[in-house]
Each structure stands twice: as C-alpha cells, then as structure tokens.
Fold this protein.
Amino acid sequence: MSPVEFIPIAEQSNLIHEIGKFVLDTATRDFLTLTNEAGELIHVAVNISPQQIRQPEFVRDLESILETNGFAPERLEVEVTEGLLLSNQPNVKEIIGKLHNIGAALSMDDFGTGYSSLSYLLQFPFDALKIDREFVDGITDVELNEALATAVISMAQGLNLKTVAEGVETAEQLEMLKSKGCDLAQAFTSAARWR
C-alpha cells in the first residue's frame, strides 16, 4: 500500500504518532548496519508528518530514540512539507528551532508543489530542498520541467542549501540533474550522491 493511501488514515486515526516513532526508531537503530554495508558514514532522512511534529513531546521523544540507539543527531535529516509551515501554529517554529539546535538537518520535501512561499526559506533553518518528482519526471523532454528544476537548484545554491531531486528513474535524468548542479538524486527506494 502506498504511503499516499495509508498516511492520511494513520493521521485521522491518530496512529501516526506511534508509526512515526516506530519509523524513527527502526531507521536509527538500523543505522550501524547500513553504515557497515555502505562502507562509509551515511545520513538517514525521515519524513515527519505535520501532525506528528506539532506534538509538544516530539523533540523529547526523538532525542530519547537517538540516545537509546546511539545515533548522532547530525546524521539525521528531518523532512517536512509546506503543509506544516502553512498551519501557522505557534509551536511549529519553536519545534523546528529545537530540531536545528540538537543538530538534525531539516529539508523541505516536495518543494514546488504547494504554495512554495520563499519566505519559509528565510524563516526556518532549512538545510535542503527536495525537488518534487512531478518536475523530475519530464525533465529530459519538457522544457518547462527542466527550467523549473534548474531554477530551484540555482536558488538553493544561492541560499547555500543542498538540493535533492526526487523520482530520478533514468540515466538521462540523472545526467541532466548532475549537469545542473543538483547534489543528490533519489529514486523510489534509494538515494545516490554524485561522485
């Protein structure tokens, strides 16, 4: 079942908090195995539901999981969507500030598909922008997709942010994004750094 199907159900039933903790625990606990297999220190990126991150105990629970699993916060990247920022809830800025203070990286997921207010990039300590797969999908044969991806990459570089292209499935997409200066490519199940 796709996350697009089960995440809304998990959020509506309030199961998202337990699922989110399980995902964070599993990802950070398995980190050592992943590092050994990769032969290098790697980062782990985890999507966090807006509903989950709004919980006052979120950062405390996260710190507890990291400590229990011996996982350095600097190796964790927390991915949030613009929906979280649009909520205008007062504790969101505080929670994101706490995540930044413990050393976790913060990325804006699906950049360009929501309202994409550039003011969010000034208000919050983002480390990366993730270019939505909607733009990547036609990047090699639709000029507008190429132009939008290029603009996001250029803007991110100007703001000293890392760029991650989502949904990269072909060698042609990979090469084009690499030539534009994109830092990382993410397929459906994996990510690769340019060498």
Notes: Strands lie at 44-47, 76-80, 105-111, 128-131, 162-166, 184-186, 191-193. Residues 60 and 98 are 10 Å apart (CA to CA).
